[in-house]
């Protein structure tokens, strides 16, 4: 049924979108994939996790992002087919036979994300990319059933694009590189919904600059400044939105909340006095480390929120308090850390413990760093595909060798390291039982940094 892959709809489906104005669906297989239960599940998973607790408009979903990535890939492949069609095998130009697998991989690239995905992954050791490939390749999923109508091998070929093992580097780089359909959509979409205007860049200009060559995708050297703008926009979004300290504070609470529930369940296996009846059945496979794909697909943001709401009313004071803090947006506070802070971390943790907070759940050290642009290093654990500019004669040059701006950002980590603690420790009340502890704690804070006590500075 190879013809199914290119079967056109009798009438195109057009979806309204605030970022791209319209998302155009011309092929039956794309519409069939959108209508599967696994893809519809992405409606129930927020793109930015808990960021809406900081940026109230950030309620958009993995579903809309995935449609956006598909639309950008559709426009890119149309541009390549019209402007750079292959003439002879191996000429490095675009083979239109690769369009549909590119569009399908773009649509399905985030299929395996779970609820509050990065926090959930950290606690339960899951991997959304592995789950994406499992959903695509496992017999019995609706996604797999649709893809197998093309050929028995087709699901594995789509998974290979997402796994970056597909033989055509042009297809892989459209989906996953330092400037790809995924990144371009999430930057524009996240900037729009968070209200962060510095995440904007000239998408239409960048797409017109794209040129294929034998090793992948490059960009016309005449448009270098548009590429610079994109890299700087990505840098700003990471520093101002993705690494926002309050978002990270709420992630710490979410992490502690899930970890406390898991710890209580584990303890209940040996201590019959511990009540485990509050643990929902759908989380047990993850607490036991024996989850299946079906278990994973049962979970979404709404399911976890239902559990969190119930946990407000359990007998365990820590679980109940953490659930209330998360649901009612009561973030932890934080102080910046330097190497000079290290000797004082244990000291302030002891003060927090003395004030009545279990530091296993109410404190955390968290660092968030990112590189605005990474130069290709073949020996790295996960080497980045560098951005190549293409000269009129067809030769390529790596972006940072020409751009002084990118050179200044390349291979430099930006971000910070923070110590998170309960806001209660900043209390100025003198009638509180722990007021003396609070005063002692605050001696270690200076201009948002954790430092030596003020009387020693």
TrEMBL record:
Q: What is this protein called?
A: Deoxyguanosinetriphosphate triphosphohydrolase-like protein
**PANTHER family from the xrefs?**
DEOXYNUCLEOSIDE TRIPHOSPHATE TRIPHOSPHOHYDROLASE, DEOXYNUCLEOSIDE TRIPHOSPHATE TRIPHOSPHOHYDROLASE SAMHD1
Spell out the InterPro entries in the cross-references.
dGTPase-like, HD/PDEase_dom, HD_assoc_2, HD_domain
Where are the bilayer-spanning segments?
A: none
Q: Which organism is it from?
A: Periweissella fabaria
Pfam families, sorted: HD, HD_assoc_2
SMART domains per UniProt: HDc (SM00471)
Q: Where is the HD/PDEase domain?
A: 58-196
């Amino acid at each position: 049924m190879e013809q199914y892959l290119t079967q056109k709809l009798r009438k195109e489906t057009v979806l309204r979108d605030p970022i791209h104005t319209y998302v155009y669906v011309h092929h039956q297989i794309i519409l069939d994939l959108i209508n599967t239960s696994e893809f519809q599940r992405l409606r129930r998973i927020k793109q930015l996790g808990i960021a809406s607790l900081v940026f109230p408009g950030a309620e958009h979903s993995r579903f809309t992002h995935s449609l956006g990535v598909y639309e950008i890939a559709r426009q890119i492949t149309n541009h390549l087919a019209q402007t750079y069609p292959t003439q002879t095998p191996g000429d490095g130009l675009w083979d239109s036979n690769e369009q549909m697998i590119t569009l399908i991989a773009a649509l399905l690239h985030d299929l395996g994300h779970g609820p509050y995905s990065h926090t959930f992954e950290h606690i339960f050791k899951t991997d959304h990319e592995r789950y994406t490939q499992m959903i695509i390749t496992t017999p019995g999923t609706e996604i797999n059933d649709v893809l197998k109508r093309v050929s028995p091998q087709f699901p594995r070929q789509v998974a290979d694009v997402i796994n970056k093992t597909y033989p055509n580097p042009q297809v892989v780089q459209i989906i996953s590189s330092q400037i790809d359909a995924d990144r371009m959509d999430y930057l524009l979409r996240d900037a729009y919904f968070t209200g962060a205007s510095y995440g904007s860049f000239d998408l239409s200009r960048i797409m017109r600059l794209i040129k294929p060559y034998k090793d992948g995708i490059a960009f016309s050297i005449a448009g270098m400044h548009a590429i610079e703008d994109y890299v700087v926009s990505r840098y700003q979004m990471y520093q101002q939105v993705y690494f926002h300290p309050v978002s990270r504070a709420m992630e710490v609470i979410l992490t502690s909340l899930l970890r406390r529930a898991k710890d209580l369940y584990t303890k209940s296996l040996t201590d019959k006095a511990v009540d485990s009846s509050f643990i929902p059945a759908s989380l047990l496979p993850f607490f036991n480390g024996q989850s299946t794909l079906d278990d994973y697909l049962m979970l979404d943001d709404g399911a976890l929120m239902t559990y969190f709401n119930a946990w407000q009313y359990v007998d365990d004071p820590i679980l109940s308090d953490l659930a209330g803090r998360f649901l009612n947006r009561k973030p932890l506070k934080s102080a910046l850390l330097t190497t000079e802070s290290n000797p004082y971390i244990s000291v302030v943790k002891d003060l927090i413990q003395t004030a009545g907070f279990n530091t296993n759940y109410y404190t955390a050290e968290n660092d968030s760093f990112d590189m605005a642009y990474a130069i290709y290093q073949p020996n790295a654990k996960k080497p980045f595909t560098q951005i190549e500019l293409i000269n009129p004669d067809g030769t390529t040059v790596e972006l940072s060798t020409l751009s002084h701006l990118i050179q200044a950002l390349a291979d430099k980590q930006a971000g910070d390291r923070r110590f998170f603690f309960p806001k209660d420790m900043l209390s100025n009340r003198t009638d509180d039982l722990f007021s003396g502890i609070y005063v002692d704690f605050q001696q270690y804070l200076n201009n948002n940094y954790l430092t030596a006590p003020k009387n020693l500075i």
